[in-house]
Design goal:
This protein has 166 residues and is mostly helical. The protein has a domain of 113 residues. The chain contains 8 helices and 2 strands. A two-stranded parallel ribbon has the order 1-2. The longest helix has 18 residues. The relative contact order is 0.10.
Amino acid sequence: MPASQPKSQQLQIRVSAAQKQAIRRSAERAGMSMSDWVLSRLVPPVRDEFQALLAALAASDEPGTEFAEILDFLAPLGAREFENAVAEPPRVALDAYWSSYVAATVEHAAGLKLAPVPAWTADVPPLERPAFASNLTSLRLHLLAHSPPAFAQRNIFIDASVGDRV
């Protein structure tokens, strides 16, 4: 949980004296309070960052720019960080196109990073109509043939994704 969010609830857990001491030492090494350190393990900051980027995407008048930020965020993450970041479904409502695009992106990136695909992506239906990255008819055959499988299965036809620049 980012420090900027006010904490208004309390959670109490029982730990042994040795566990409490281990938590205290780990928190001190990280320069954090014990509460913040425990929370960072339960709700990794990358998860909140990903959700914040999805919220910006949902609210944007120019979603392409916001989506590029999501790609830039996901690209450098290692498998474990990626798994933590995308573990939860979007907390915001995205339209059908962006919902499918985000799910396909997460599935595709999971494959590239050898990370598990989060279960929530299976709940996102494919688009009813094909969506192409270009309106040029001459490029459609190329896009049909070269779209990553995660996108093609969702009826989205592109030629670049996470980590790619065109």
